[in-house]
Amino acid sequence: MSKPLLKQSRRNLPPPPVSLRRTQTHHNESVPLNGTMMQFFEWHVPSDQKHWDRLQERAAELKKNGVTAVWIPPPTKGASKDCVGYAIYDLWDLGEFDQKNTVGTKYGTKESLKKAINACVMNGIHVYADAVLNHKLGADKTETFRAVEVARDDTTHDISGQQEIKGWTKFEFPGRGDKYSSFKWNFNHFTGVDYNAANKRQGIYRILGDGKYWSDNVDNENGNYDYLLGADLDTAHPEVAEELKKWGVWVINELNLSGFRLDAVKHIDAKFMAEFLEHCRSHTSLGQNMFAVAEYWKNSMSDLEDYLDVHDWKLSLFDVPLHFNFAEAAAKGRDYDMTKIFDGSLVQAHPMQAVTFVVSSQKNTHTHTHTHTHKNISPNPLVGNSSSSSFIPFLAHKNAPQNNHDTQPGESLASWIPHWFQPHAYALILLRRDGYPCVFYGDVYGISGAAPVEPLAAPAITNIMKVRAHFAYGDQDEYLDHPNTIGWVRRGDEKHPQGCAVVLCAGDEGHKHMFVGEAKAGERWVDVAGGRREVLVIGEDGSADFPCNGGAVSAWVRMEEARDVMAWKEQDEA
Question: In the beta sheet, which residues pair with residue 78?
């Protein structure tokens, strides 16, 4: 019988809270100070096999905007030509072999991928590949084997007796042959399937075998959440474990990767995933600097902590609770208490393990297909005044569509962040000390597909990214003391002494009286993010009243640096 991960006792206590005055902001030393990750894809990027070319072309632009790492979509061959990458067919085919009616993946060929990664490396950008190790789809042949059907809402509950079914579990890879790996998959290597080809019945079928059962070390939703879709990999099978570990080392070396984004880990044996990562660390030159962030999509701090504990806290997790806080704040507008925006979040409790995001497309493969509905958002509850400044604030468009990829239109994780709140959320992850922020491709470059979405907040987001790269360093003084208007000051460090002052208004226009340092008395500061046109003079006591438009974000820096770094111009002065 499965023993859910949540029910197991904690082996270690979480690391103690870390002071905001530390010099390292992530547990993995490969993550640079003020590092910024970008998820360089969205669900509907064109199926033109040119996405790797786009990455190569934009590598220098990404660096200019402060990006230090990119998370790329699964580079492996999917079950169809247009597969986004999560319906994995062959891990060893990176767009090199004629399989599934194509040589390249949706994103391009292996050759174009390696050129793109090289361009990133040349620009000082790490590359993390999306690793999908939970399931396989698109088998070459069916096999007949014994199984029992289980309930969808409780996979520990059998709803049939033992029966003989025909499932798509034979993977032979005729286009690749034995190159890189001679391993061929059969039903013994899986724990379950969701289709009986003998009677064309859909359901969840647990495959029978000596000692074979769902994993013990998975999430306890639906009784046991080992099974998600397709042919579910049996990581307890020694041949499967060996094959996956071999692939992990190979793909890091083959592509010159810096690490992984791990898909759907709450459905994969947690102890195996820890072994997988440790094997990759010890068998590549990356060692303990190999980065890994896992998608454990659950708004539960105890679940996230339990998972980190299995990994001895060497892993990062996406801060799902913070994302849901953002969704609630965006929905409530002026009625949300912004002083509580970090309550219950991973970045608040364990900042050095947190990858923060706004509407990042965390792929939840609960369904085989995805409808492409087009939803609208409410307009910004309070829109700031327009400005002719080159630093145009983001203003919400009435009925502007929402974005994301599983939190983007039509996808399966329906926790939407409307455009008006995106600059607020990005300021909260990019301009503060804690967390490793991840910027969503669709928010900067737009979303394609049947219901395209313009990146309306992109100018504000890219400005905020640049402020992070050049100014948001050093000690952090908090002014989180008003339900609608909050602020903070970054005091700068030895290499970036100027610092910045940030104000967010989720309600009416407001201001914060904040101290930036007596040494800055008399300096002239300007807003490079929110469209305020006045020039502030820092008082003799090192303080000033920093204003912000209603429903907007303002980031204030010294005028001289604003000109040099942010292209602020004299005519922008009031």
Answer: 88
Annotated catalytic residue, options 42, 149, 243, 295:
295
Average pLDDT (324-331) is 95
The 8-class DSSP code of residue 208 comes to P
Residue 241 has φ and ψ, to the nearest 5°, of -60, -45
CA within 13 Å, CB half, 545: 5
| Cα distance between residue 369 and residue 169, in whole Å | 20
Beta bridge partners of 204: 150
Residue 23 — pLDDT band, cuts 50, 70, 90? low
Instruction: Kindly state the percentage of the chain with pLDDT values over 70.
Output: 85
Q: Which of 381, 342, 331, 428 is nearest to 550 (CA)?
A: 381
Burial class (CB in 10 A: 0-12, 13-18, 19+), 542: middle
Q: Give the model's pLDDT for residue 27.
A: 87
Rounded Cα distance between 205 and 546, Å, is 61
Sequence letter at residue 145: F
Angle subtended at Cα 235 by Cα 232 and Cα 238, rounded to the nearest 5 degrees? 130
Q: Quick one: pLDDT at residue 15?
A: 55
Establish whether 263 is a catalytic residue.
yes
CB-based contacts of 30: which residues, under 8 Å, 6+ apart? 126, 258, 259, 286, 289, 290, 291
For 389-432, list the strands marked E by DSSP. none
Does the annotation mark 254 as catalytic?
A: no
Closest by CA position to 455, among listed 424, 406, 419: 419
**What CA–CA distance (Å, rounded) separates 222 from 23?**
42
- The residue from 263, 309, 406, 434 that is catalytic is 263
Three-state secondary structure call for residue 7: helix
By three-state DSSP, how is residue 135 classified? Answer: strand
Q: Which tokens sit at 358?
A: 């706004």
The letter for the amino acid at 244 is L
Only one residue has tokens 């009243």, namely 545
Predicted local distance difference test score (pLDDT) of residue 361: 53
